[in-house]
UniProtKB/TrEMBL annotation:
InterPro entries reported for this sequence: ATPase_dyneun-rel_AAA, P-loop_NTPase
Biological source species: Marinobacterium iners DSM 11526
Domain ATPase dynein-related AAA: 466-563
Entry protein name: AAA domain (Dynein-related subfamily)
Region (Disordered): 1-23, 84-106
Length: 774
């Protein structure tokens, strides 16, 4: 007989923990908006439930407090709107009263005019009477004596009435004038008082608005902090569940191995069951449906045997006994076989049922494993970040960081900054002008809109700017104020006269100490790559850039700025160290990011060098002059961090919008006589770099509110009509310059109808005068 196998090697099934009335799941769903998986919640221990519940209560309290603050802010805004509407109503009532007073004054003036008209009519009548009196003296006394007496009496009466009416009118006029003057003074005083109240209320409202904005920014900061805290808590929970997930994964692997063994055993049993197919076939041939019917049939056969025995009673006893013994042995063997087959069949059915249950459990475990894998992916990312931070901390503790400052930035600037998009370029110019004027309240800076339009156009044209001008025109201040106004970072690098190579700018590697001495410029380059500054404006201010030759210490950057993509990088070391900062390429190259601009200030005297064509052709040059105070808004601006990516998108949109205009300008220039004059007389042509820069510079200036004439005039004056190109040469003559001046005036009429080439013509005039004087 087959024996029942031992199943002690089967691992016990874990009973899932019941959720405490779904309270924790509902709290999590109310906070995150997503209900957690019941299978995941079932694996959480009671201590973890307590921590999760406390965390949920704390988050709900913070959320309620935030919503309360928002409601208070909304109520304050509503009260502010009501106060504004009441002030507007009072102002309209005062204006109505003033108009009524003006109407009264006009009525008094009308009455005065009527009185003067009556007085004029009386004087006319008096003259007529005098004429009649003269006629009477001339010979009509007798005929008109009676009428004269009547007229004299009437005249006397009219004069008396006129004098009385005139006196009354004068008294009324004087009284009305005094009353009107008194009322005017009272109304003027009331209007002045109301105006002062309105001004005070306006200032108070502006202060309240600034306070509200500050509160809003604080709330946004709190919300950001809360989200950060939630993410940190989430990472902590995921880390706490990481060990549990690993245990479940190992348990799942053991169960899968066990299932595989059981599948092999099931295959063996199925093979054994196939051996019983013949028995079942025989049972079916005998028209039986089970082994019980076979037993009944055997009992029937035994009864038949007994009957046969009775029938064969006359046969020899020995022969019958032998036959009966044979039949009994045969019957016993068949019964044993039947019982063994029946028992094996029952065991096979039980095992098949267990296999089916195991398959269902396996499907549930597979689904559970899929969910756990998704959580595991998120935990793996957090684990990798923690490993990197731990490695950085170990390097810092062991003193093995080759780039200590850059490694520190990896830890401190790993959070993404919240920026806002740049408005339209024209609005951006106005906003930038106001913000720059408010950077330093004690020493406000004023830059004209034309200067700022050219500056923004230069941001799109090149990442290297050269600001020129006499001392005190705000070259250094413009770069610093721009960075602060847009919420960016400005790193000041004073250039020294003895600089000769790249190491003077970015630093050098000390092989003995195994450390790289990172200078400010290198730190600024790396800071622009970090998440905290990757979408913000970054400026490296090279103060007194031409104290040394930029073509030497800045040569690698000049070459890198001409490249695109991952080729824009500067090599720091020959070999990469074992551990290096995250954003260095190959551990030894620092990229030059798109959100970083080099702005150099330049003075021209006996202590400085002139810029070579290599530098000027690759840079945006801006000559700063005196900037007077314009009508700049004094509305207080809240701090802001503008997005560089939105600035790039706005620039691309402007280039696409004004591309036909730039195509037309260059087509006109290339077909005009000025092109041949520049090539034959001066050896200058329209290069590809100049055309590419114009396609980036002119559309941005136009989108910022400027004109194509203004942009093209500036670009040509600093690229073609500067010293060394058209002007400042000994091999040119005055007649050549005069010819070029005529061509310039002619082509400008076709290029632009909006202005003149003031800057180019001014340089040509100065050069012609210098040639004529020589």
């Amino acid at each position: 007989m087959a024996r029942k196998k031992s199943r002690n090697n089967i691992p016990p099934q874990r009973q899932p923990a019941k959720m405490p009335k779904n309270a924790i799941a509902e709290k999590v769903e109310s906070i995150t908006g997503t209900k957690p998986e019941s299978s995941l919640m079932a694996e959480v221990s009671s201590d973890e439930f307590g921590k999760l519940e406390a965390l949920c209560d704390e988050l709900i309290a913070l959320k309620a407090k935030y919503e309360g603050d928002v409601q208070v802010l909304e109520a304050d805004r509503a009260e502010l709107d009501e106060l504004r509407s009441s002030l507007e109503n009072e102002r309209s009532e005062l204006e109505t009263k003033a108009s009524e007073r003006e109407q009264e004054v006009r009525g008094i003036e009308t009455a005065r005019t009527e009185l003067l008209a009556k007085e004029k009519a009386l004087l006319t009548k008096e003259e007529e009477l005098s004429v009649r009196e003269a006629e009477a003296q001339a010979g009509f006394v007798k005929q008109h004596r009676e009428s004269l007496a009547e007229l004299t009496a009437e005249l006397t009466k009219i004069r008396a009435e006129h004098a009385l009416s005139l006196e009354q009118s004068q008294n009324e006029y004087l009284q009305a004038q005094r009353s009107l003057d008194t009322e005017k003074k009272r109304l003027a005083q009331e209007i002045q008082d109301e105006w002062k109240k309105l001004e005070q209320a306006k200032l108070e409202l502006e202060r309240q608005l600034v306070g509200f904005k500050e509160q809003q920014s604080q709330l946004e900061a709190k919300e950001s902090t809360r989200e950060t805290w939630e993410s940190v808590k989430k990472e902590q929970l995921e880390q706490e569940f990481g060990i549990r997930i690993a245990e479940l994964e190992s348990e799942l692997e053991r169960i899968n191995a066990y299932r595989k063994k059981e599948a092999d055993r099931l295959m063996q049993l199925q093979q054994r069951l196939s051996g019983y197919a013949e028995l079942e076939r025989v049972i079916k041939q005998k028209e039986m449906h089970s082994a019980e019917e076979l037993l009944i049939s055997m009992e029937q056969l035994e009864s038949d045997v007994r009957e046969y025995r009775q029938k064969l009673a006359g046969r020899p006893v020995e022969e019958l006994e032998d036959e009966v013994d044979y039949l009994k042995d045969l019957n016993r063997v068949l019964e044993d076989q039947l019982r063994e087959r029946t028992q094996e069949l029952q065991e096979a059915n039980i095992e098949r049922h267990q296999r089916a249950m195991g398959v269902m459990e396996r499907e549930q475990l597979v689904n559970k494993n899929r969910v756990l894998e998704q959580h595991n992916d998120a935990i793996r990312l957090a684990t990798e970040q923690l490993k990197r931070e731990i490695d950085d901390l170990k390097d810092l503790q062991q003193g093995q960081a080759v780039f200590p400052a850059l490694t520190r930035m990896d830890r401190e600037l790993s959070e993404q900054s919240v920026t806002q998009p740049v408005p339209s370029l024209e609005e951006f110019v106005e906003d930038l002008q106001t913000r720059i004027s408010q950077v330093d309240s004690e020493n406000p800076l004023y830059f004209g809109k034309d200067t700022l339009r050219l500056f923004i156009g230069g941001l799109a044209m090149s990442q290297l700017h050269i600001l020129q001008g006499i001392s005190g025109t705000g070259k250094t201040s413009l770069a610093k104020a721009f960075a602060r106004a847009v919420g960016g970072q400005c790193t000041v690098v004073p250039v020294q006269a003895g600089w000769r190579d790249r190491d003077d700018l970015v630093g050098h590697y000390n092989a003995f100490e195994k450390r790289f001495y990172e200078k400010e410029c290198l730190q600024a380059l790396y800071r622009a790559q970090t998440p905290a500054y990757s979408d913000r404006f970054n400026v490296v201010l090279l103060d007194e850039m031409n104290l040394s030759r930029p073509e030497q210490y800045f040569a690698e950057f000049l070459s890198a700025l001409e490249l695109t993509g991952e080729d824009r990088q500067v090599v720091l070391m020959e070999d990469a160290p074992a551990k290096y900062p995250r954003f260095l390429r190959d551990g030894r190259k620092v990229p030059v990011a798109d959100n970083l601009w080099f702005i150099g200030t330049a003075n021209h005297d006996e202590t400085t060098f002139e810029f070579a064509d290599k530098t000027q052709d690759r840079s945006f040059v801006l000559e700063l002059g005196r900037n007077d105070h314009e009508n700049i808004s004094n509305t207080l601006k809240c701090p802001v961090m503008y997005s560089v990516s939105s600035m790039r998108a706005t620039i691309q949109e402007a280039m696409k919008r004004y591309r036909p205009e730039v195509d037309r300008i260059f087509k006109t220039l290339q077909e005009h006589e000025i092109t041949s004059v520049l090539e034959k007389r001066f050896g200058i042509g329209w290069g590809n770099r100049l055309e590419r820069q114009a396609r980036q510079f002119i559309p941005v200036v136009m989108a910022a509110g400027g004109t194509s004439s203004q942009a093209l005039d500036h670009l040509l004056s600093v690229r073609l009509f500067r010293d060394g190109k058209v002007t400042g040469r000994y091999d040119t003559k005055a007649e050549h310059l005069t010819k070029l001046q005529g061509c310039l005036q002619s082509v400008w009429e076709s290029v632009s109808k909006e202005g003149f080439a003031f800057l180019c013509e001014e340089k040509l005039e100065q050069e012609i005068e210098r040639k004529e004087m020589a």
